[in-house]
Each structure stands twice: as structure tokens, then as C-alpha cells.
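Researcher: I'm preparing a figure for a lab meeting and need a structural model of a single chain. I don't have an experimental structure, so a prediction will have to do for now. The sequence is pasted below. Please return the structure as C-alpha cells so I can convert it later.
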Amino acid sequence: MLYLQGVHHIGLNCRNPLKTAEFFKEILEVPLSLDDVDESQPIYFTVGPHMRIGLHQHDTAGQNGIGQVDHIAFSIATRAELDYLVDKLEVQNIPYRGPIERSTSYNLYFESPDGHQLEVRVEKDEQDEG
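Model: Understood. Here is the structure written out cell by cell.
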């Protein structure tokens, strides 16, 4: 029997992995040290207790389609955090869509510097309903 323990990492192709790492550090506040980065190697960082993202140097643009990742969705705990992120995106002039109210969540959509589709969502609680 096979028991998957979770996702080890997601690899993202980037024109400039360091620039994309700085985006994740500044905009999404990922605790990431860039002091000892070897720009010839992928940059890895952890999101939450179990997921890693690897930023890999890649010079060829791809296309979204069958067999490719559509987007990455991150969870946060509160609506106030989502509003805080909207403010950060506006200050940095980063285009976004949302927050969009869904039946069980609020969702915000934007892109990394290399065009990776990102979503940040917060689940609704009882105070949000009704």
C-alpha cells in the first residue's frame, strides 16, 4: 500500500530565480535568507510546515496547457492578512484580481515576476457568513 505524506516541493522555472525569490520574500513575507545564494543553483524555501518551493533557472518561455501547473494556492489564517496583502500589492503596483468572495473563502489572484499564477485564500468563518 502507498501512503503519500505530502508534497515535497514544487519546482518553478524562472528567468531570474533571485528576483523571484526576492518577490516571495518581500510580497509574501516568506522567511528566506538570500545571503549565501549560489545563482548557478536552484533556490529552495519552505512554505508552512511541509511544503518547499524550488526556483530553477530556465531561459525558455513555456505555455500553460495540459501537463503544466495552472497555479499555486496559498492559505492564510485571517481576512485581515488578505487585506494587508492587497495593500502591499497596490504599493508595489502589482496587478491583482480580488478578493473574490466564494461560498467558503475569499480569494486573491496575482502573478510572480515570471508570470506564475498565484492565489492567496482565506477560509470564511462563522463571522463572515450571513
